[in-house]
Amino acid sequence: MATAIDEPVKVGAVFEHSQVKPSWFIWGHRRYVVQEVTQRWQTKEGQAPILHLGVSDGASCFELAFNQQTLIWYLASVEAHGSA
Is the overall model pTM greater than 0.70, yes or no? Predict the structure, then answer.
């Protein structure tokens, strides 16, 4: 089960061919290296388009959200592999 976090995070990402791919993010003074982008979807928060990315560091799954109006990244949720 995923745990909601909803905290701003620093993200290193590559923007290429109208796609964004996070390479790493920092949460809680720890740097996580993104090994795989597993999902992509978009929502809106008011008028702001929000890009959601499911990512994995090989040990846990995370949902990163990018507010395309404010250009702020958030860690929306985390789910450790093997958790109930």
Answer: yes
